[in-house]
Amino acid sequence: MSDEKNYGESKAPGQRIFYLDLARAFAVVSITFNHAMSRSFKIHEGTYEEFVSISHVTSFVKALLYVFSRLGVPLFLMISGTLLLKRDYEDKKVLDRFIRHNWLGLLITTEIWLVIMFWYMQLMNGSVLRTEGILSALVSFVSTLFFVNQVTMASMWYMPMILCVYLMLPIIAIALKRISDKYVAVLCGFVLLSSMIVPNINTLLEGSGTGVFLDLVPTHTDLFSYFLTYVIAGYWISGGKLKKIKTWVLSAAFFVSFLGTTVFQYWTYSTPIDYAVRYADIGVIAASCCLFEIIRRKASAFEKLKGPVTTVSKCALGIYFIHICVMAGMNNVLDRVVKTEYLTKFVLIETVAFAVSLFLVIITSKNKKLGKYLYLIK
Question: Could you tell me which of 71, 7, 5 has the C-alpha nearest to residue 33?
């Protein structure tokens, strides 16, 4: 950790890498912010009406917190690229272990949580069980497990996405090894252009009321998911691709991209387009890449927090699954019993849900089998 050139990376097999733990802990906090925000503010619709009903300061804080909440998934994906794209998948044993240990384990955990969340949701008003009966609920349950017409928490979109992205990792890893970084970089450049840059320009044009729309053909869907660009970026960053950039320049780039995206989000609130910053926003990938490299370089500054950071990192997947259930229950109660909204509601939901989720993961993971299958804690 004292060797600055290694930026906290561990060389011992099986030993935890602190900067990845720090990034993972940061990421799960960001993701819980996202779901607390969507239960405290208008995010996807009615944003203009909310904008004119609250102060400009509150709207700006809303934009700031929401953009922050979009950095978590990119960091998780970059961590995956750091850990998984360096493997030699041309070795059949390595590939078999990846499928069995990483992909299949993730699938099993996903299915377990699809079961838990489905039946948890049946307790709520308007559920399939309450409105259509047990037979319809059973049919819906089976289709949910097969990823068809799913009835589950909205946050579970991440699991089928990452399961598909994982299947592409051996192919990308071999391409990076056998072809060249430059070839893959060109492909990533096109994906960024078609999935982020052009759509962002269209959002500006729409919000400005120009009536102009750029229709780029072909698109990234003809090549690969833009989520893969985050994974590849993590691999490159962990390999030192940004090491020649001075830290102050990197920090400035982070603040410019982060605050620029915040201002962009704030501006969209003043228009009727109901736009929410996405993972497919150029400012989000720029800010998250800068942040990942800053964390890699400066992780040693947080050594005194190594214990709690490592704990949150180990519990991250469990927090991801549990917090949304806690938030859903809290939101249901708060809407009926206590009238809270905006920042007060955000702080309440975020604080309670995160604390309860962390506590439940720590307690239940003391049983090693529960820890392994529910949260992938090894």
Answer: 71
Cβ contacts of residue 59 below 8 Å, gap of 6+? 50, 51, 266, 269
285 contacts 74 by C-beta, under 8 angstroms: yes
Length of the chain: 378
Amino acid code (one letter) for 3: D
Q: Which two tokens stand for residue 245?
A: 């950039």
Beta-carbon contacts of 61 under 8 Å, excluding residues fewer than 6 positions away, are 343
* Residue that has been written with the tokens 């950039």 in this structure: 245
Using CA atoms, how far apart are residues 108 and 163, in angstroms rounded to an integer?
Answer: 11
Q: Give the contacts of 309 (CB within 8 A, at least 6 positions apart).
A: 18, 21, 22, 25, 302
For 48, other C-beta atoms within 10 Å of its C-beta total 16
Tens of pLDDT along the chain (378 residues)? 333 344 445 445 568 999 999 999 999 999 999 999 999 999 999 999 999 999 999 999 999 999 999 999 999 999 999 999 999 999 999 999 999 999 999 999 999 999 999 999 999 989 999 999 999 999 999 999 999 999 999 999 999 999 999 999 999 999 999 998 999 999 999 999 999 999 999 999 999 999 999 999 999 999 999 999 999 999 999 999 999 999 999 999 999 999 999 999 999 999 999 999 999 999 999 999 999 999 999 999 999 999 999 999 999 999 999 999 999 999 988 888 877 889 999 999 999 999 999 999 999 999 999 999 999 998
Quote the tokens at residue 320: 């991801």
Asked if residues 346 and 316 have their Cβ atoms less than 8 Å apart, the reply is no
Q: φ and ψ at 242, to 5 degrees?
A: -105, 10
Provide the Cα torsion 313, 288, 173, 226; round to 10°.
120
CA 212 to CA 196: how far, in whole Å? 17
- Could you write out the DSSP letters of every residue in 103-120? IHHHHHHHHHHHHHHHHH
Report the C-alpha gap between 274 and 251 in whole angstroms: 30
Q: What is the pTM of this model?
A: 0.94
Amino acid letter, 254: F
What's the rounded Cα separation, in Å, for the pair 322 and 373?
Answer: 14
Q: How far is residue 19's CA from residue 7's CA, in Å, rounded to a whole number?
A: 8
